[in-house]
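Please check the following.

. . .
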Amino acid sequence: MASQLAYHARQELVERLEGYEEEHKPLLERVVRLLEEKLIPIVRAHAITGHARMNTEDPLLDDPLALRMMIDVLSERGFHTSVDIHRIEVPERVDPATGLIACRVKKVYRIEIRYQPSDIRRGH
């Protein structure tokens, strides 16, 4: 049943958050700082809509555990978050002899956060 799935998902979320605190506290603190400094200001700016999208190239999110922590912390606070990793090849140099272009891969994390929008009463 759906209610059972939700209950177990919540239990697992709490267990993961406790594990982060016990086993990976410095990384968790860095993730929380990223949220406070970069993401939450954008979320606040979109409070009326209940939907915010942002892009970041922050290397902290290259760590899969940090990325999971970010999603879990936001989930625990009532946000619905999804992240897409967009890889872009960026030319760095051209070999004059062969004409081959050497590229590096730039990772852009596209973060979408949904939440209950602000209740605005128009004309009442």
In short: The first strand starts at residue 51 and ends at 56. The chain has three helices and three strands. The beta strands are 51-56, 80-94, 101-114.
